Amino acid sequence: MSPVASRRRARSACAAIVLVACPVAAHGQDAPTTAGAPQSLPDMTLDPHSPMAAMPDLGVDWPDLAKPDAPLGILPPDETSPGAPTLFLPPPTQPGAGGKPAKAASSRTTETTGDRRYALAIEGLGDVAADGLVERFDALSSLHQGEGALANVAQIDRRAREDADLLRELLRAYGYYDAEVDARVGGAAGPTLSGQPRLAVTLSVTAGPAYAFRSVALPGLAAAGRDEQALAHAFGVKAGDPVNADKVTEGLAALKLALGQRGYAFATVAEPDITVDHDTHEATLSLAVEPGRVMHFGAYRFAGKRVFGMHHLLRISRMKPGDRYDATRLDDLRRALIQTGLVSVVQLTPIRTADPQVVDVEARLEPAPPRTIAGQLGYGTGEGASIEISWQHRNLLPPEGAVTFRGLLGTQEQLLSAQLRRGNFHDRDQVLTGQVAIDHQNRPAYDARTLTLAGGMERQTNIIWQKKWTWSYGGELIGSDERDVIAATGQPRRRTYFITAAPLSLAYDGTDDLLNPSRGWRLSAHVSPEVSLQGSTFAYVRIQLDGSAYQPVGDHLVFAGRLRFGSIQGSSADRIAPTRRFYSGGGGSVRGFGYQKIGPRDIDNDPVGGASLAEFGLEARIRFGNFGIVPFFDGGNLYEQSLPRFTGFRYGTGLGFRYYTSFGPVRVDVGTPINPLPGDSRVAVYVSLGQAF
Fold first, then answer.
1. Quick one: average pLDDT of 535-544?
2. Average per-residue pLDDT for the chain
3. Using an 8 Å Cβ cutoff, are 361 and 353 in contact?
4. Less CB within 10 Å around the terminal CB: N or C of the chain?
5. Which one of 2.40.160.50, 3.60.140.10, 3.20.20.70, 3.40.50.300 gives the CATH number of domain 371-689?
6. What's the per-residue H, E or C state across 23-54?
7. Which stretches does DSSP call E strand in 50-194?
8. Using CA atoms, how far apart are residues 376 and 382, in angstroms rounded to an integer?
9. What predicted TM-score, i.e. pTM, was given to this entire model?
10. Does the structure show a pLDDT above 50 at 52?
11. Closest residue by Cα to residue 453 from 419, 477, 474
């Protein structure tokens, strides 16, 4: 027989890929058994004159006569499959290289009695190029799920055979079609905490050669014309690449995304068809594509309930009538609508129109509950305890006019405020803000009763769209009755201030996460020109610069550092209202010291604030799963002069604890001052949401 005639062509079944959710269609002579599917019995025909073979070790304990019998061929459920019986049949054979049956998943058991703990080891994966295979196996392994608990040898043996099948199928998904996995159960693998040796379970892998694609074809893609090359590049899989289910799946998703980005609103992509040749250790891949026409966007059509008007929807959308259709912009609109907090479900569906080159989009929106009641507890050494309650209606002044009423009751502050935030005001991601607040602060540095009216405009950043650049500008009208003391004599005084301010800010954020950054850097500048009336009118400018950087080291450690500089130009610190001066010390400043405890003090040892400051902070963020510890070292000082002198720094150190949630880390920091002043506490505790910086 010629080599061509003798060549085995087998189109692999999706079992080689099904474990990684690949929609690859495959076929041929060697379709493997899918994990979990019923398994057929092997050929049991025997020669009556042949010697009798040794009885196989079935791996089943003697029955407990006190329990009811189980149906024939069915094992009762155990902790590996609660509530579901397991079909107990001999393992099927698997095809191997050259058309010969591969070695079946089996196990050799040397011990058959007693409940034991066990330890799993895998041999033979050292030369296998399959990133993520071990992690995927660990997540699906029956042995790993039951590891640490007592099990009888029959259960351990069955889990070992299941895991051998699982590991072989995963290897096939990475292109190792001739892989064989042998399971061994027996021997000791080291003592448990009780001193009893654990049972050794070993999966021995013979991976065989890694298959590669001989050819990759995308029939029908030529209809895309000048986009053909870019779309083929987006698919990414090409001749010579290893046969890898993950890469095929990723390429399929990337191709569909690229078609949508380039205007092919109604493109169709068939399931990949893979043909495997076991003689040459190669495969061919064919993926049929029908791109259709390039479409242009026409209009949105509302279906169901209206949450916004059409004008506001077009303001949020980045795709305007007449633009080339782009599926990624629809996905952007979907997330933007959810981000408003007024929509719970969004369905955006392309619809054909009478014009064969124009597509409309049907928008079906389900409104979300518009009201929220929230509460918050906080504590900080020097700041005391506080409780906050707020009520919000996110669309009281439509569209997107959120009104929030907030009350704060604390040991050092009491506050009542009403705030308006109108999202997407005149432009996407632009927010109009307005606030009225009555505030009483009783700090060691001052006692102030303040009425504030403020308004402004800002470019917002959030978890979904973390912006590189953000800015804000606005105005404030402040009336404040403030009591402090003359620093030199300690004599109390009371002054009333009327202040007009025009705060401005500009910030750059190059980090990878808004609440828990691990890479990149940030820089921000805040400038507030202010005019104050107290006896006479005078003006000054408050300036503050903040910078921070983050550097990961491995998978579990991030080094973080920050700098802060502040300056008030145009007036002495003593003339400026105490609430408008700089202060240092506390959970967002130099930890280890109490709130506002760093800097100049009066004769009663109370802080008086300053006209400039300089601070730094260093952290090592060590994370283990959802928990973490953070050693930190902070330093800084406050000065009466308008420029910081970088002398007399106060240093604090300590240890932080983190619990990482889906919305950010919960922070508990415990610090102590290294060079305290008289009256400083030896321990300071800070509790809040989010990292310190």
1. 95
2. 84
3. no
4. N
5. 2.40.160.50
6. CCEECCCCCCCCCCCCCCCCCCCCCCCCCCCC
7. 74-75, 86-87, 94-95, 101-102, 107-109, 115-116, 118-123, 151-152, 180-191
8. 18
9. 0.69
10. no
11. 477
